[in-house]
Amino acid sequence: MTHKHSNQWLQKYHPSKIADIIGNVRVIRSLKEWIQNIQRINNTDTLQNDTQISVPPITFLYGPGGIGKSCIAETVLKHFNYHVYELNAGEIRSKKRIQNVFERIMNNYSVSMMQTKHTQRTIGVIMDEIDGMSCGDKGGLHELFHIIKQNKDIVHPVICISNRPYDKKISSELYQEFQLRFPTDTDIHKRLRYICKKEHISIDDASLHFIIKHGKCDIRRTIHFLQEVVYSSGNKQMDVSISDIQSVIEASSTVHNDFNIFDATRDVFNIPLTRYKMVQSYSNDKFLMSIMIYENLPEQLIQKKLNTSTTM
Description:
The chain has 13 helices and seven strands. The protein has a five-stranded parallel beta sheet, with helices on one face. The protein has a two-stranded parallel sheet with strand order 6-7. About 55% of the residues lie in helices and about 10% in strands. It has three domains: about 160 residues, Rossmann fold (3-Layer(aba) Sandwich), CATH 3.40.50; about 80 residues, Helicase, Ruva Protein, domain 3; about 50 residues. The N terminus and C terminus are likely disordered. By secondary structure, it is α/β, with parallel strands linked by helices. Strand 2, helix 5 and strand 3 form a beta-alpha-beta unit.
């Protein structure tokens, strides 16, 4: 059986439904209940019969990187047939910008409602990298709270994502938060075993646990590493052993140590890199890499423009 490096398992086995998500069962259950309550509020018949329903339109999900916050938010919203509108910190840095964004969202919803009548997909919003905003940027976030508070016609669920809990006191009528935790080794083991079965890979539990340990509870890193081990083994029978895993770890360590800042900068600009290789190059020295990219970017842009003009 042949495998292609372009067939990234992270994309191939990205959760498409709630049942595919690893861990955080209680939080996911709470998110489902939250969405169901929002849908009840948006149902005019329900509102007439039940005026006691009160549910916050904003939910904060926080936890360490690599835990799957964005994935959980997107999967839950799509489970309830929401059209997901994603924003990041760079798009909400001012009151004016957030006003423009939500005006566009509301207009899109109105057009959709007129075109499809009662079958329209309501919009759900995911706002990522909230903790990446500086103090001066928080005006956009505060404006978001204000807009949602003033909008009484329909409740659009908004999920804000960050690595840390939000540090401001907000009314519980407007906001709630949930902490996500890394999945257990058992949870990750089940997912990897599922992938191995689909890919016809033979690997014992000891080797699989070795891979999980190297992944440090980061499910994305773990799946990527499993794929790297399989591709590097060169075993046509697709048998993976601990020695195969150790060889990949040693090779990666050697490449990382021998990879200087100038090589990394050159490769970032001149070689099509996978996401993993790009992160690996950047992680070589994050401070110096940022400086090197900043210093070399103008020249690279000019050079690439000249090359394009010459080709044309």
